[in-house]
Amino acid sequence: GKGQQDLWLALHPNTREKPQYYDAILNGVEIFKMNGSDGNLAGPNPIPGPQVTADPSRVLRPSTSQSKSRTAIVAGVVSGAVVLGLVLGLCVMVAYRRRKAGEYQPASDATSGWLPLSLYGNSHSGGSGKTNTTGSYASSLPSNLCRHFSFAEIKAATKNFDESRVLGVGGFGKVYRGEIDGGTTKVAIKRGNPMSEQGVHEFQTEIEMLSKLRHRHLVSLIGYCEENCEMILVYDYMAHGTMREHLYKTQNSPLPWKQRLEICIGAARGLHYLHTGAKHTIIHRDVKTTNILLDEKWVAKVSDFGLSKTGPTLDHTHVSTVVKGSFGYLDPEYFRRQQLTDKSDVYSFGVVLFEALCARPALNPTLAKEQVSLAEWAPYCYKKGMLDQIVDPHLKGKITPECFKKFAETAMKCVLDQGIERPSMGDVLWNLEFALQLQESAEESGKGICSEMDMGNVSDSRSSGIDMSIGGRSLASEDSDGLTPSAVFSQIMNPKGR
């Protein structure tokens, strides 16, 4: 037979089909010997035909128009995918924000709904935009929560904003005395400045706050007016004005110690309710003696919620926010870190306690440098054992040593520099109630009130038999004569709204 014969395999494009590509890559090939007609595979190898070489010039290249068309299609598909992704992302973000807002949305029932306080940042910055935002928001409130007054009613109630009816002036605006319902109901009317951006926030926040919260020691909002670019709030009338008006720089008679203590307790109840009684923690942020009002029965009510903010949730320890408040009462830790907690209110309330005890402003620039800030001077005197030297002279001989020690220690703990070391408002309230009980017990027994208070060792709580623990809430005392907390402290454990 014939010897071995080389077999050549040539690959080339089919020029009749006009392929797009001329070059090709061969991954593998198998060649089988074809059998003869009789089925015998032992036949000779077939003789290969002549090799045909393709002419590259005859191979068609893709046209420029086809290439551009394909590029346009690809670009269109990619652009469409990007736009679709952005739209979907925007929809997801809007849905998420609405869901988050819904979690804070109050129920229509005033007894079950609480403060959402999602107002900061919702106002427009333009002049007319402010009014529209405020008006649309206020008008959306259920009518059963607060009353809507016309501007004509407000003018009639204040005798056309008679200056002789001005009760006070604050950052939000003037407060007027007024009468509504034919002169049968006295009210306080706060008229805001519509050109103030902060005023818009305060107006919205205060409506949101006070229309949802009801408590004996929180000032009550009767209604509002939003006509003619006005921002007007109508409150219950507080016959005895502010707490500060009865402490210093006033013609009013100085308050007796027991009454000051009861006012502090009332304010503490209001703050404790804000921190724990509502659905979400509410931080007042502007606790001071001018924001503690007194009604005709001398019941203390916390007011001015324009700077209030919802506190942190369970999975957060603080709220990061721009520092706001009043100098002299501002929590130094909050000022340094811009992290707001309910302990910031505790610090401010500690300054209020020292004001009640010493009858002097939180800041007095006319004094020596070390005495200007009461929040710094009072603790210094406390540590030096000379706190009694800066007590209001009208209180000399009127405070029992046990009550004085308990009150001073409570105020001291409130103004500690580190918020984590300060007591909660519940602990502050408990200790103030205990201090009042010590005072009343000593007055009833006719003992313990010295003509000259000897408080040289007030800073050392171990020097007396009284357990000064704030966190532990112990009533153990050798001098308490078996006092029981059940009646006095019942409202602390169950801070219901009224």
From TrEMBL:
User: One Pfam match, by short name?
Assistant: PK_Tyr_Ser-Thr
The record's section on Gene3D superfamilies has: Phosphorylase Kinase, domain 1, Transferase(Phosphotransferase) domain 1
Which compartment or compartments is the protein found in? Answer: Membrane
User: Where does the record place the Protein kinase domain?
Assistant: 161-435
- Biased region (Polar residues) positions are 487-498
User: What are the boundaries of the region Disordered?
Assistant: 460-498
Q: Which GO terms describe its cellular component?
A: plasma membrane; plasmodesma
Regions that span the bilayer: 72-96
GO MF terms held by the record = ATP binding; protein serine/threonine kinase activity; transmembrane receptor protein tyrosine kinase activity
Which SMART domains does the entry link to? S_TKc
Keywords, in A-Z order: ATP-binding, Glycoprotein, Kinase, Membrane, Nucleotide-binding, Serine/threonine-protein kinase, Signal, Transferase, Transmembrane, Transmembrane helix
Name the principal localization, coarsely classed: membrane
Per the record, membrane topology reads:
Single-pass membrane protein
Please, which domain of life does this record's source organism belong to? Eukaryota
The record's InterPro entries line, in alphabetical order, gives: ANXUR1/2-like, Kinase-like_dom_sf, Prot_kinase_dom, Protein_kinase_ATP_BS, Ser-Thr/Tyr_kinase_cat_dom, Ser/Thr_kinase_AS
* Residues given in the record as ATP binding sites: 190
Q: Which family does it belong to?
A: Belongs to the protein kinase superfamily.
**Would you tell me the protein name for this molecule?**
Protein kinase domain-containing protein
State the organism named in the record: Brassica cretica
